[in-house]
Amino acid sequence: MKLLTLIRHAKSDHDNDLSDFDRPLSERGKTDAPKIGDYIANNLTKPDLIISSPSVRTATTAEIIAKKTGYPADKIHYIDELYLCSVPEYFEIIIKQNPKNHHICIISHNPGTTALANLLTNEDIDNIPTCGVAHIELDLFKWDDIEPGIGKLKQFIVPKKL
């Protein structure tokens, strides 16, 4: 069994002239990310690996969650392809992961995060909101065995419910 935790980045600040990639977290994002990090630290298995999109809002979310879960921030893997990633690109990233990693967290963007969660679990999540979490149990032993429908949604967490 493997665990995959999909996290959408925290709410970003739109009140600036920065590019989409360079947008920082909003005040709400700065509040929600630590809440989600605390939830993960207290309720889920510690991640063996955190992978993140390198966009500013996503990297900041990843760093906050890493700190809250005791994961070393300098060990976060930033993967350029996670910025506005498609489902096939997610699969390409996941299958390359070391089978020794039992629990992987991927912090990225919509619509890909929601689409991947639905494809893996056969669920019908309408939208994973900012800083929302889909925690999935996967019936596999190596990451390269991942395929649609192989997962079971164990928890769906949104900051507003914490």
Primary descriptors:
single chain; 162 residues; 6-stranded mixed beta sheet; Rossmann fold; alpha/beta; globular
Topology, number of strands: 6
Number of domains: 1
Q: Counting H and I runs of at least 4 residues, what is the number of helices?
A: 4
Strand content: 15-25%
- Helix and strand content put the structural class at alpha/beta
CATH superfamily: Phosphoglycerate mutase-like
Give a quick precis of the structure.
It is built from four helices and six strands; from the N terminus they run E-H-E-H-E-H-E-H-E-E.
What does this entry look like structurally?
This protein is α/β, with parallel strands linked by helices and 162 residues long. It has one domain (2-143): 3-Layer(aba) Sandwich (Rossmann fold). Helices cover 31% and strands 20% of the residues. The protein has 4 helices and 6 strands. It has helices spanning 27-43, 56-69, 87-95, 112-121, and strands spanning 2-8, 49-52, 77-78, 103-108, 133-138, 151-157. The protein has a 6-stranded mixed beta sheet with strand order 3-2-4-1-5-6, with helices on both faces. Helix 1 (27-43) runs parallel beside helix 2 (56-69). The mean pLDDT is 96.
Topology at a glance:
Elements lengths: L1 E7 L18 H17 L5 E4 L3 H14 L7 E2 L8 H9 L7 E6 L3 H10 L11 E6 L12 E7 L5
Parallel strand pairs: 1-4, 2-3, 2-4
Antiparallel strand pairs: 1-5, 5-6
Helix pairs in contact: 1-2
